[in-house]
Amino acid sequence: MKTQIENKKFNQWLAGLIDGDGYFNLSKKGYASLEITMETRDAQCLYKIKNQFGGSIKAVGKLKALRYRIHNKEGIINIINAVNGEIRNPTRIAQLFKISEKYKINLNYASNLTYDNAWLSGFIDSDGSVYYNLKSIQIFITISQKNKLLLDIITPIYGGVVYTVKTTDSFKWTLSKKSDVLTFLNYIKINHLYSAKMVRIRLIPSVYDCFRKSFQKSDPITIEGKIWKEISEKWEGFYENKD
Question: Which run of H or of E encompasses 56?
Answer without folding.
Answer: strand 56-59
